[in-house]
Design goal:
The structure is a single chain. The chain is of the alpha/beta class. Helix content is about 35%, strand content about 15%. It has twelve helices and nine strands. It has helices at about 5-10, 40-50, 85-90, 105-110, 165-185, 205-215, 220-225, 235-245, 250-255, 260-265, 275-300, 305-310, and strands at about 15-20, 30, 115-120, 120-125, 135-145, 150-155, 190-195, 225-230, 255-260. The strands form three sheets. Strands 5-6-7-8-9 form a five-stranded mixed sheet. It has a two-stranded antiparallel ribbon with strand order 1-2. The relative contact order is 0.07.
Length: about 325
C-alpha cells in the first residue's frame, strides 16, 4: 500500500450514534474513549509484504535429502477411498508390559547366589543351577562322644556327564560341597561315601576328586578320621589305586570298604543317616544274590581240586603215573 493510499483513508470514528428519545429528535452521539494504539504499519508492511532486495537465496546451496534418505512407503500404501484403510495401517502389535517383581520375588532372586569364602578367597555359588543336586551331601548325625560329625556323600545324586551345563554345575557343586563341609564340621568327623546305584556317567572324574582333596582346609584333612566307601565298584577302586601314590599315607589308611548296609551299621549309628531308596534296593538285591550263591555252593558241595584228583590212588592201590 502506497503513502497516498494511506493518506486518503478515512479517519476512524470517535463517536457512536444513538437513537433519540421518542419524538423523532435528532440523533445523539456518544463519545467513546479508546486506549492509545499505534497504527503505524510502515515497518511491518515492508517486512511482510515485500521481499528485501538484499536477500540473496542460492537454490543450489540448499540441503536436499538424498535418494537413500527417502522413506520407503511401498509397504504402507493406503487406499484413500476406503475409510477403514487408516485404521488398518495404524494397527500395531500390542507391546507386552515389563513385568514387575514383588518384594518376595526380589528376595528369592537374591537367594539364588551365595557368597562363600574358601581358602581366604571369596566365591559365588549359583544355587539355582545346583538345586536338583543339593542332596549329594547331608549331615548324618554324630558318633563317639556326640561332637564327631557324620557327613554323607551320595554319588547317585550327581549330574549326568552328558548334560550341556555339566561343567558349570560341577563347578558350583564343588564350591557347595566344600563350603557345606566347613559349616558342618566342628571337631573330628567321618565321610560315608555311598557309591552304590551310581551309573558310570554320574561318577565324579578323577580331576574333580583331586581338586576336592586339595581344596579341603588343612584342619579338615587332619580331623577326618575315616572315609567309608559303601558298595565299592571296580571303577572307584581303580581310581583310588591310581591316586594312592599322590595322596598321603595317613589319608590312604583312613579309607575303608563296606560291602553292605549291615556292615555299615556295625561301624556307625544309622539313626540320622539318610540312605536313598535306590541304594536300599541295591543292597537288598546284593543280599539276595549272596544268599543264593551260598545256597548253590552248599548244594553243589566243594569242587575237588586238581592236585587231590591226581594224587588219589585207584581202586588197586596204584597211584596214576
Amino acid at each position: 500500500m502506497s503513502t497516498a493510499d494511506r493518506d486518503s483513508r478515512p479517519a476512524p470514528p470517535t463517536s457512536l450514534p444513538l437513537q433519540g428519545g421518542g419524538g423523532g429528535g435528532p440523533a445523539q452521539r456518544k463519545k467513546l474513549s479508546a486506549p492509545p494504539i499505534s497504527l503505524s504499519l510502515d515497518q511491518s508492511e515492508d517486512e511482510l509484504g515485500e521481499t528485501p532486495d538484499d536477500l540473496d537465496i542460492d537454490v543450489d546451496d540448499l540441503d536436499t535429502p538424498d535418494e537413500g534418505d527417502n522413506l520407503d512407503y511401498t509397504d504402507h500404501e493406503m487406499d484413500w477411498d476406503d475409510p477403514r484403510a487408516a485404521n488398518r495401517s495404524g494397527a500395531r502389535e500390542p507391546v507386552e508390559p515389563i513385568p514387575t517383581c514383588s518384594a518376595e520375588e526380589e528376595r528369592q532372586e537374591g537367594q539364588l547366589w551365595r557368597a562363600v569364602v574358601i581358602g581366604e578367597q571369596e566365591h559365588r555359588i549359583n544355587m539355582k543351577s545346583i538345586e536338583p543336586y543339593q542332596k549329594v551331601i547331608s549331615h548324618g548325625g554324630y558318633y563317639g562322644n556326640g561332637v564327631n560329625a557324620i557327613i554323607v556323600f551320595a554319588a547317585c545324586f550327581l549330574p549326568d556327564s552328558d548334560s550341556e551345563d555339566y561343567h558349570e554345575v560341577m563347578e558350583n557343586l564343588f564350591l557347595y560341597v566344600i563350603s557345606t563341609l566347613e559349616l558342618m564340621v566342628a571337631e573330628d568327623y567321618m565321610i560315608v561315601y555311598l557309591n552304590g546305584a551310581t551309573p558310570h556317567r554320574r561318577m565324579p572324574g578323577l580331576g574333580w576328586l583331586k581338586r576336592c582333596y586339595q581344596m579341603i582346609d588343612r584342619r579338615l584333612r587332619k580331623n577326618l578320621k575315616s572315609f567309608i566307601i559303601v558298595h565299592p565298584s571296580w571303577f572307584i577302586r581303580t581310581i583310588l589305586a591310581i591316586t594312592r601314590p599322590f595322596i598321603s599315607t595317613k589319608f590312604s589308611n583312613k579309607i575303608k570298604y563296606v560291602n553292605s548296609l549291615d556292615e555299615l551299621r556295625e561301624l556307625i549309628p544309622m539313626e540320622y543317616v539318610h540312605i536313598p531308596e535306590c541304594i536300599i534296593r541295591l543292597d537288598e538285591e546284593l543280599k539276595e544274590a549272596t544268599e543264593s550263591s551260598k545256597i548253590n555252593s552248599f548244594l553243589l558241595g566243594p569242587e575237588p581240586s586238581a592236585s587231590r584228583t591226581q594224587n588219589k590212588p585207584d581202586e588197586a592201590g596204584v597211584s596214576p603215573s
